[in-house]
Amino acid sequence: MSITRSAKKIISTAAWSAYNFYRLGKYFKSDYHDVSELFNAQRPRIRHHQVDSLRVLINFSKESTPYYTNLLEGIDIDLYEHITDEEIDLSFLPPLEKHQIRNHLDELCSTRFKTKERIKNATGGSTGTPLTFYQSRGYWNYRNLSVYYFDRWAGWDFGEPQLVIWGSQVDMKNGGKWIKNLNWYWRNQYWLNGFHLTESEMYNTYQRMQKFQPTTILAYPSSLYQFALFLSENNLNPNWNLNGIISSAEMLHSHYRSIAETVFQTKVYNRYGSREVGLIAMECDEGRMHINCSDMYLEIDSPDPYNQPGDILITQFNNYIMPFIRYRIGDIGRLSDEKCPCGNELPILAELWGRSTATFRTKEGKLIHGGYFTQKFYNLKGVSQFQLIQETLDQCSIKIIKDKEWNEDERLFIDSVIKECLGSDVSLSMEFVNEIPLPKSGKREFTISRVT
Predict the structure, then answer these.
(1) Pick the CATH number of 360-449 from 1.10.287.1770, 3.30.300.70, 3.60.15.10, 3.30.300.30
(2) Helices 3-24 and 177-187 meet at what angle, rounded to 10?
(3) pLDDT tens column, 382-435
(4) Are 327 and 320 in contact (CB under 8 A)?
(5) pLDDT tens for residues 276-296?
(6) CB hemisphere CA count around 426 (13 angstroms)
(7) Which of 144, 75, 68 is nearest to 112 (CA)?
(8) Of 108, 189, 256, 434, which residue is least crowded by CB atoms under 10 Å?
């Protein structure tokens, strides 16, 4: 390790320490130790933590949050019967929907906090209109502790150089250019804007990384895929000795993972989270998604959550300023009751299907993972890019950017895949375009279902 690189790591590590002292207080190390102990604990202790957290949160919300005060008015509920170490039954509370947050924003805020204590945040709007909500500093402190713990699974540590390939409008616009550069410097990060992955920008990043030598990459999956594909097609071989890659904010499709792990010669760790509730789950070395039970309780809205996928409901423990209880986050998943070979006893999210708006439905009520179509079409000869839309149960449309290898065999194949999967009577309209614009969120959408 060069003197300059070593000095930069020392400076960054010290800066991280100062940042955490400011944000988390002098007990940061002991707080992180406590959180780590819980994440490494056996299942009974994890369960007991969730039971206690749910009881306290629901009581607090009933007493101080107008929305939940009104919702629970007249309902005589003994939380010590409904929420126990043996069983957690939250069915007495209906799920919190996005439209309810939009319509009752102020009523969902606790009266025990002053308005000036609210930290305003919003989603990127990947499913339509951005969702505005409030969080507290305490929420962010606990969120950071969990991120620190799970990112270490991918080999990250304070002060280690990291390449960040990101595209969130909220993050990219947070402050002026000099503030961004200062933040990136003390964090020892190099940022590549995932919104503007031009060939020149990707080549310049590759050249700089040859000297910067990152130990981890944090990236949008689609941006990671584009960067890896560019390096592969141009015979550029990164010799960075990476510990791992953290993939976050979008669905990690199998072909994204495959090319990234081939090009960068390291494992991709899938991290699942959202702006509303923070880090939800993280993939371990064995490839299982472990649920963040310190910060939340995760349910599957399904009669058989271990065998039948359903909507994911999240109850966030730490955001008392605006409680999220049984929040329908908009994703579909399935639980597993297996014990992971890695030894960690955090519960496992067996499947993550991604956005419910990207999950197709048949007339018989069967759910079709949007990833099924991306796996079928991503490497199809003559297709540079596509976007498949389920307009109704009877009709689909597809936008295609084709290249010179396109022929009628591809058209017939696409039509046969859709009809085999969704029904032989489903009609398909095909449109050839020069560009498929990114939505405002920056998250590329390959499959969209307009069937509710």
Answers:
(1) 3.30.300.30
(2) 110
(3) 888 889 999 999 999 999 998 888 888 888 999 999 998 899 999 999 999 998
(4) no
(5) 999 999 999 999 999 999 999
(6) 25
(7) 68
(8) 434
